[in-house]
Amino acid sequence: MENRFDPGRLVRKGLQELVPYQEITYPGVIKLNANENPYDFPEEIRLAINEMLGPQSFTRYPDAMAQQLVQELAHCHGVSAEQIMVGNGSDELILDLMLTFGAGNRVVIAVPTFSMYGIHARVAGAEIVEIPRQFDFELDVPEIVRASGDAALVVLCSPNNPSGNSATVEQVQSILDNCPCPVVVDQAYVEFGGPDFLPLLDRYPNLVILRTFSKAYGLAGLRVGYLFAQSQVLQYLFKVKQPFNLNTFSQVAALTVLRHRDVFAPQVAEITRQRDILYNTMQQMPGFDVLPSDANYLMFKTGYSAADVFDGLLSRGVLVRNFGDPLLSQYLRVSVGQTEENVIFLRSLQQVI
Ligand code: PMP
């Protein structure tokens, strides 16, 4: 008998519609498209990581609970270790949140925002309810609260990727007070500015805060994210967490970075200073409308075709971020780079117009 094997028949429609993540690499360009830390990783910290690795560090499974990292994170953020979960990048924690609360339920997302919320919601089989931000990318708090009534998760990002603006404490409190479900505030860029919502954690059992070592702390390649929540929420997330999600090398690296975090403070200060210089310069340039930002990137609207500006920059060796999002068809985002990289970006931008 003929075997009419058709795996697509077994895969639900929502998943079939997803496009596999792909990335075009452009060797040799100035890479200002992914909001990474632009500096070289500090040599002293690299050596310290090496020293912490023992002869069996790679042969044994990692510590499933990453206890030392969790304990030191708790200590340096003034929370209890029971309020933390670590992940293979905050991307994994977003997926865990979607699998735990989103699967088969509604997930409210304030858009435009980081694309992985929508992607992981689809992977988990959630129904996505997008609440558009206002013309200036401020949150539409009443609409978010209204939509949360029959939702299982609300996702906010502050500072928001890509617009760069932050939510206020009043806005987040108002959402937390009125949403009957967990409210995620992704604070991947909080080291660069905007309010830190961690002090609200003890007062709000529905608050979930996401943080990462990928941006200010220069560990994007090692994938370490972490999440703060009260145990009422965490107990369910731990049911979904992969036992060995954070590999030993990354645990050791994150721990070492945490212990040397003072080394990163001048980098963060310089990045925010450079961001403000970039902002002020771009504000003077005709044809671009740059948005103020609390993060390590700037989003700008082009009076020209965003695709042409993107191509023009790329042909001059500068890679910025463009968006597949129809809400952002006229916009581009540039990450703050090293000083010379920012100068080249500005010069190239002037040449493109
Ligand atoms: N959240 C936001 C808002 C981001 O911009 C990013 C990275 N682009 C992430 C989470 C994912 O970070 P990680 O490297 O920790 O997975």
Automatic annotation (TrEMBL):
InterPro entries for the chain: Aminotrans_II_pyridoxalP_BS, Aminotransferase_I/II_large, HisP_aminotrans, HistidinolP_aminotransfase, PyrdxlP-dep_Trfase, PyrdxlP-dep_Trfase_major, PyrdxlP-dep_Trfase_small
Annotated keywords: Amino-acid biosynthesis, Aminotransferase, Histidine biosynthesis, Pyridoxal phosphate, Transferase
Record EC number: 2.6.1.9
Keyword Hydrolase: no
Pathway: Amino-acid biosynthesis; L-histidine biosynthesis; L-histidine from 5-phospho-alpha-D-ribose 1-diphosphate: step 7/9
Modified residues (N6-(pyridoxal phosphate)lysine): 215
Residue stretches making up the Aminotransferase class I/classII large domain: 28-343
HAMAP family recorded: HisC_aminotrans_2 (MF_01023)
Name under which the protein is recorded: Histidinol-phosphate aminotransferase
Origin organism lineage: Bacteria, Bacillati, Bacillota, Clostridia, Eubacteriales
